[in-house]
What we know:
heterodimer, A: mainly alpha, 9 helices, 0% strand, B: alpha+beta, Protein Transport Mog1p, Chain A, 12 helices, 8 strands
Amino acid sequence: MRLVTRAAGGGGAADDPLAHLDALHRLARHLTPSPADAEDLVQETYVRAFRGVAGFRPGSDLRAWLFRILRNAFLDARRREERSPVDLSVELAADAPTAAAGEGLLRGDAELERLRKVVGEEIEAALRTLSEDGRTVVLLDAEGLSEAEIAEVMNCPQGTVKSRLSRARMALRGRLAEYGRQEPP
Amino acid sequence: MNCDDAREQLQDLRRGRLGPAAATEVRGHLAGCDACRREDEAEELLDRALAERLPRHPASLALRRRVAALAGGEGSGLGPGAGGEPLRERARATGRPRLGALLAPAAAAALAILSAGLLLERHHRQEGAGLDRLAEEAITDHLRLLSSAHPLDVESSSNHEVKPWFEGRLDFAPVVPPDQGELRLLGGAVGYVLDRKAAVMSYALRRHKVTLLAFPAAGLAWPVADRSAGGVPASAGEGRGFHVVLWRAGELGYALVSDVDPAELEGLSAAMAPATRR
């Protein structure tokens, strides 16, 4: 089961910008720690979308276009805050050690058992430990976007999406396995 | 097929992206390899955990209403999949949906919302009627500030604190007018006017909010001045119950927006505009 079925085709609700409000809000909540900031981010997304509607290519994927606007708005906001200049290559590298650590944590049936028991709060906590890139690619994949659509959102080649997704999911599994090891016997 | 090859394609197999021959080959490998089968199961369990257990965080009713208000819709009845119709109906009522029929459904839906009231940029360009583009943009920015949960990046009643805060965040130096009479400075933020960054200064006038925007004016079609703001040539616009006064100060443009009485807003602009030219 996917978070959202692959509805983005021609016609119907998928072609209504407001039909994607929940999905945009969901991604925003995982990008920003504050619910209020997430709402502002979604609102900013729609303002930019309405403003830039002339730049939308008829026939292209509206949902991916909106996600891309949201992500760019998020990155712009972070740059404005100047908490830390956004360097995606550095961020991405941050997932790599976790992935390597994940390899050595719970193996085999122990990991499967752990994944069967994992709860929502743990998944959210594990997602927060990923880089922004890692979180975004995992969540967009879970939303049902194709690699081509994710590549459009993240403005990178499709092959890069595949490697980022693989690395981020491995890191996520590593984190979830860590939580399992911290559980009392 | 070795394990590395198989694992590279597990994701594609689960997502149905492999052709029949490749899928058969990967399945064949899985049938004979416990380690890869376990890996596939772990990835499947992660898929399920993300789909079924990750909190879904639906948008709040307040956010739905804010987005609907931005789009010029009715708001309270807006829900997933149901938001477009009232807006489209409204667009039809304005007699401006024809261009939308020439576009793909997605663009048409977006254009219907556009037509319904948020941005009239295209409408102005094509029909030359209604609010001035800048005034409409200023009102939209003011509305965004009013409806934002965190409207200000810096909260201060001192223009000596707000003005330095903009340094390094903008490539121009706006004038931040101080308190005047009942007008109280609340703080500032960085926003956008059309395609460029803007200094956003927020004030309170009794129970009203007043927004002053400062932005580079180069390349903008500036409205013809038809009045004076303290001796500075200015123009005025209005829309959706808000009033706007616009003036130029060198390379910068300023827009003062509020729902206060237009005469009172012009009085405020008369006090501010000369200061922005110094």
